[in-house]
Amino acid sequence: MSISFIFVSGDICSSKPCGNNAAKCVALYHNYTCLCPYGFYHKNMDCHKGLIFPGLIMLQQSYSSSIELVNSTEYTEVFLNVTAFFTNAFRDETSFGQTVIVGIQLLQNSRSADTSMSITLMNLFAENSAVTNETVASKINKAAEDSKYITAYRAATYCAVFQCDLRTTVCEEAMYPECTCKSNYSKTAWDDRSCSDCNSECSVTSNKYCAKESGIPTCKCLTNFEMKDNRCVPCAVGYSGENCKNNSELNLIIVGTVLGAIILSFVIAAIFISARSKHKKDSERKSLIPAYLNSEDSGNTQTRMFPRVQTTSGYANPGYQSSNPYEMDRLSSSKALERDYNDEYETTQEPNGFRMQRRY
């Protein structure tokens, strides 16, 4: 379990006990400590550049979650015990400057319920000091033999105390490490420990934008685009929204297509019914036209636009057969009645015409 310290300001720092320079006053429980930028130690109200010796110590002590607060009693107790231990270990080294606690990690014993703490820290000495890693480790281990509080010590890397953001950077080991951005990230001018921005390829021209998720910059496709082969391409037809997850347009297209097909079917059916009805009416009209060519006297008729006018009356000529189509129609239509008349009457020829005489 790694602990990130939460600094809470207090009235104890209002008097500026760390001076007016780059040192930062951190309020503890009824106490305070002064922290300088990486590579500097605080002494005599000022920050001084020094030599850095990162390390890790083990100590037997359980703690609660309140140790996350640097002004809690638990943290203050650990801070005072650790700084007192190193002050005693380097009591003969006049170039010793300061011990700075960087982080605390809980270690669970797999064989018992006991817990121990691992503290990452750095000891700083004057820049012109002659101490080495071997000298520092020897003095600390000798002091740990007589301590009931510190159980072990080992050297650590510079990256362990420089605290690059491991989510977005890769730490390049050196006394002054460099936090190199991982792929797709870039640094801002005000932060050298993390890469809090997307790279230059994440731009509107590439249909992308940079978003923050849990404090980490994430390059995403613009609305109505989706990622394919590391490129943001337009959504397929019917899809929209973020990552093209909205398919409401596709549903509308499907519904519109179905409705269009139904309407088209109705139109085709209406045209078919209308054409069939018209054909039926034409057949009925044709059946009402007299079939002159099928009549009994059709052989003597001629098709004319205008009927021929007869100058001689048929009544004055016995045996006369009219060629007038209108007269033929009248004569044809009266054939059905001739039988009834013939049954009761007979015709006689007289000088002035015909006369009908009833039979007795």
Can you offer a commentary on this structure?
The chain is α+β, with helices and mostly antiparallel strands and 360 residues long. Among the domains are: 2-162, SEA domain (Alpha-Beta Plaits); 183-234, no CATH class; 323-360, no CATH class. 26% of the residues lie in helices and 29% in strands. It contains 6 helices and 18 strands. Strands 1, 4, 5, 6, 7 and 8 form a 6-stranded antiparallel β-sheet that branches. A two-stranded antiparallel sheet has the order 2-3.
Helix/strand-derived class? Answer: alpha+beta
Number of strands: 18
Write down the Rg. 58 Å
| Largest sheet: number of strands, sense, barrel closure | 6 strands, antiparallel
* CATH topology descriptor of the domain at 2-162: Alpha-Beta Plaits
- In sequence order, what are the helices and strands, one letter per element? EEEEEHEEHEHEEEEEEEEHHHEE
End-to-end Cα distance: 145 Å
Helical stretch tally = 6
* CATH class category label of the domain at 2-162: Alpha Beta
Question: Under the CATH scheme, which architecture of the domain at 2-162 would be assigned?
Answer: 2-Layer Sandwich
Mean pLDDT: 79
Shape: rod-shaped
Helical content class? 25-40%
Which spans have pLDDT < 50 for at least 5 consecutive residues?
A: 1-9, 339-345
Assign the CATH superfamily of the domain at 2-162: SEA domain
Work out the strand percent.
Answer: 25-35%
Main location: membrane
Protein name: EGF-like domain-containing protein
Subcellular location: Cell membrane
Keywords: Cell membrane, Disulfide bond, EGF-like domain, Glycoprotein, Membrane, Repeat, Signal, Transmembrane, Transmembrane helix
